[in-house]
Amino acid sequence: MNTPAFGRLYTLDGAAMACDREEFVIHECLVHMAALMHPSPARALVLGGGDGASARELLKHPGMRQVVVAELDPAVVRAVCRHIPALPHGSFDDPRVDLRIGDAALTLGSAHQAGERFDLILFDLTEPDDPACAHLHGEEFLKLCAASLAPHGIIQVQLGSPAFQSGKVRTLHARLAGLFPGLQLALLHAPLYGGPWLIASIGGGDDPAEASLMARLAERQIRDLRYYNPAVHAASRALPTYIHDLLA
Q: What is the pTM of this model?
């Protein structure tokens, strides 16, 4: 649908998923915060991601050899490619992108059994208690994600809105923190989702210095970003007191 504030917008079961006017906020941060923390990402798994925007951003890294998109609903891919093609920007036509339709838990389970390991695993999913993907935020699946990482691998999980989904955010954060010591959080501003939005990073160690992130951007010749930059990366780690209190 066309909207005055967000441009072309697509919804799923009545909930806003992405729009062409500001989707870059979530997708740039979800991808590049992790990809630039990693010294040389080559294989990535996007859980969900049927709009193709995360795949689009991953392909900006020249060392990326394979992007697996584990999308449940093929209708999402068809609809976005037809009506909002700026989101995938041709990513599904790139031979490095491997679209696997079906339940993401089954997709990752089969990949793990086949010996596939990933440098990056990105949660580009609907809300963690949505019936379609609640099991993808459970302890068993999170452990499978960790077991499916290559050395230096990183997982990015969207926690949600601390302002409007405080209970869900608190519950998921507690589960992640109990499983993964060293969990790092990033706070973004995503107008479509109500403003403040939290992402959790698992693995990868401490953030590289800002100068190192700048050097990696230059080395990989990534220049067309609209939200993410190394200063934003560092600043996103600073959380307001009310969020510390929420997650305590």
A: 0.94
Cα 31–Cα 68–Cα 64 angle in degrees, nearest 5: 60
**What is the tens place of the pLDDT at every residue in 95-131?**
999 999 999 999 999 999 999 999 999 999 977 777 7
Neighbour-count burial of 41, counting CB atoms closer than 10 A to its CB (0-12 exposed, 13-18 middle, 19+ buried)? buried
Q: Which of 51, 119, 124, 207 is catalytic?
A: 124
Select from 69, 80, 78, 87 the least CA-distant residue to 25. Answer: 87
Q: Find, among 16, 11, 63, the residue nearest to 35 by Cα.
A: 63
Q: What span, in angstroms and rounded, lies between the C-alpha atoms of 40 and 50?
A: 25
Q: Name the residue with higher pLDDT: 185 or 7.
A: 185
**Eight-state DSSP code of residue 224:** -
- What are φ and ψ of residue 199, in 5° steps? -125, 140
d(CA 12, CA 195): 20
CA dihedral for 142, 233, 19, 49, sign (positive or negative): negative
* Residue 18: per-residue pLDDT: 66
pLDDT single digits (tens) 211-227: 999 999 999 999 999 99
DSSP of 97-152: EEEEES-HHHHHHHHHHTT--EEEEEEE-S-TTSTTTGGGGSHHHHHHHHHTEEEE
Alpha carbon distance 204, 184 (integer Å)? 10
* pLDDT for res 130: 77
**Which residue from 7, 107, 103, 123 is spatially nearest to 54, judged by alpha carbons?**
123
Q: Is 207 a catalytic residue?
A: no
What mean pLDDT is predicted for residues 158-173? 94
Q: What are phi and psi of 61, to 5 degrees?
A: -90, 115
The whole-angstrom separation of Cα 28 and Cα 11 is: 20
